[in-house]
Amino acid sequence: MNNEVAFKLDGYKFTKAILNFDIPQKAELDINFKPSGKFYEKDGCYKLFFDTAVIYKETDTVVISISCIASFSFNGKIRFNDIPEFFYPNSLAIIFPYIRAFVSTLSLQANTSPIVLPTVNLMGLTDILCKNTSVVK
After folding, report:
1. 122: Cβ–Cβ under 8 A, 6 or more apart, which residues?
2. Percent of the chain beyond pLDDT 70?
3. How many whole angstroms from its chain centre is CA 113?
4. Which of 1, 34, 69, 128 has its Cα between 20 and 30 A from that of 16?
5. Which InterPro entries match (predicted)?
6. What's the confidence (pLDDT) of residue 76?
């Protein structure tokens, strides 16, 4: 009997986007991530809420702030405790390229260099996402 749990990305949307270009040309920037999730037991689906902020280090000014919601489904009805550990880091890794592309597109304008987020190892966010996941009955 095969007990593997597979999942897929059903869709995503950006629910908030803030852009502030009032920073120096060669500003040093920081990236902050805030992942959280909700598992809907009735439907067996998971919603990933992934907030990303780019901050100008010197003044703590928010340059870009976006919120993204991604919907994932599993291959069959599962309970919260059946979600495999690999789901959490992989869900972040799946949605992050879309966030990178959105930030680049949002910040692209004439006479200004776009903000391009680097590729990032998101494994460090796994525990945060697990702790910030709630169950909706």
Report:
1. 33, 89, 92, 93, 96
2. 96
3. 23
4. 128
5. SecB-like_sf
6. 82
Average of per-residue pLDDT across 70-83: 92
| CATH architecture of the domain formed by 7-135 | Roll (3.10)
Q: Residue 71 pLDDT > 50, yes or no?
A: yes
pTM summary value: 0.89
DSSP 59: T
Confidence of residue 3 (pLDDT cuts 50, 70, 90): low
What is the Cβ-side half-sphere exposure of residue 55, based on CA atoms within 13 angstroms? 12
Look up tokens 């597979």; give the residue: 6
